[in-house]
Amino acid sequence: MTAHVAEPSRLWTDVDFEAEGKQVSWVHLPHSVTRSAYGTIAIPLAVIRNGEGPTILLMAGNHGDEYEGQVALCRLVRELDPADIRGRVIIMPAVNLPAAMAGARVSPIDDLNLNRCFPGNPRGRPTEQIAYFIETVLLPKANAWLDLHSGGGSLDYLPLASIHMSPDVDLNRRATAALRSFSAPFSLVWQFFPETDMATYSGQRRGIIYISSELGGMGALNPDGIRIAYEGTVRSLDHFGVLASTRFAVPPAPATRFITLRGRADYVYAPDAGLFEPLCRLGDVVKAGQPCGRVHFVDDPARPPAVVNFKNDGLLICKRHPARVLRGDCVAHLAGDFAVS
Ligand code: CA
Q1: Fewest CB within 10 angstroms: 6, 42, 145, 307, which?
Q2: Which residues are within 8 A (CB) of 107 and not within 5 positions of it... i.e. 6 or more apart?
């Protein structure tokens, strides 16, 4: 019997993950193009280590147009010193760098969405190779993983942190406690997400706590979202036993409200192409059958607008930002209350 040895990631770095101290450098993704035959894409990476303890992986820029986590994690790269921690903190504030520099959800190089590329491919397109590096180099070292998202250019969200329910009851219990410690205004428990090539499922396969977030959107940088990302991350480091110094005053946890994404019926999709007029605001409590919005046809003024209704009762936590829609665009989604056991 031949032992299966995973093909190594082609990404390389001068960072020594086992070294004590603070290293702020780059991971190099080989990218041979006309303007740079032996070139690489240099993706920022910081590793801070002080003795034995848990390893926490902090990541933002999985989607390049989601900015609050990117700014909050750059601040932590500048601020965190080895004396502040016990264990290890790995920070990648712009993990899909080409997407982050383009301000785009997907990479302009390969049109791929990093969060639909796990577990990645060592010989794949650049975004698939980034996923493979995370999967095979970073995750085996990590005890917990914070992957900070926002709504991006096409969505706007109530500020929330989130976990995804897994079949592992003990992991769910530990993830729920970690989510409570992050203490965003809303704590969302996803019970429905059928796309199994997402980061969250790589975390589940390895039994790693995976916390995500949605901290604004509309292609903007929301100052409240930056603060929630920063303070929630510091509280998480404290929760996981990594924060060791009093220099980082852990901001007291504000109240958080647990909510849940229940299934397909929580989503509303544009019924036709046109101009979408929302008839509700973020934070509204709505009823099944209530109009969510209507699509106008300015090229056919005699045609009445097409109304689309909610299919579920719930809290409106996410809505589409740009007015122009195509049939099938998600224009809103709801969440219901969640009782934490
Ligand atoms: Ca996202």
Answers
A1: 6
A2: 64, 96, 98, 99, 114, 126, 127
CA of 152 to the centre of ligand 1 (A): 6
CA of 288 to the centre of ligand 1 (A): 26
What would the two tokens of residue 58 be?
């902090």
Please count the other Cβ atoms lying within 10 Å of the Cβ belonging to residue 6: 10
CA atoms of 311 and 81, how far apart (whole Å)? 50
Spans in the chain with pLDDT lower than 70? 1-5
Instruction: Say what the pTM is.
Output: 0.96
Q: Are 94 and 85 in contact, with CB atoms under 8 Å apart?
A: no
Whole-number Å distance between alpha carbons of 149 and 64 = 9
Q: Tell me the per-residue pLDDT of 289-339, one tens digit each, with 9 for 90 and over.
A: 999 999 999 999 999 999 999 999 999 999 999 999 999 999 999 999 999
Q: Rounded to the nearest whole angstrom, what is the distance from the C-alpha of residue 173 to the centroid of ligand 1? A: 24
Q: Kindly give the distance from the C-alpha atom of residue 155 to the centroid of ligand 1, in angstroms, as a whole number.
A: 9
Amino acid at site 42: A
Residues 6+ apart with CB under 8 A from 314: 262, 266, 285, 286, 334, 335, 336
- Do the strands 209-214 and 144-148 form a parallel or antiparallel pair, or are they unpaired? parallel
The rounded Å distance from CA 149 to ligand 1 centre is: 5
Neighbours of ion ligand 1 (CB under 5 A): 63, 149
CA distance to 6, 133, 140, per residue, from 3 (Å): 10, 21, 18
pLDDT at residue 193, as a whole number: 75
Measured from the Cβ of residue 193, the count of other Cβ atoms closer than 10 Å reads 12
Token readout for 156 is 């706007």
Strands 87-92 and 55-60: parallel
Whole-number Å distance between alpha carbons of 187 and 260: 8
Give residue 212 CA to ligand 1 midpoint distance, Å.
Answer: 9
Look at residue 45 in the predicted model and tell me its pLDDT: 98
Is the C-alpha dihedral spanning 27, 30, 32, 33 positive or negative? negative
Characterize 250-259 residue by residue with b for buried, 16 or more Cβ atoms within 10 angstroms of its Cβ, and e for exposed. Answer: eeebeebebb
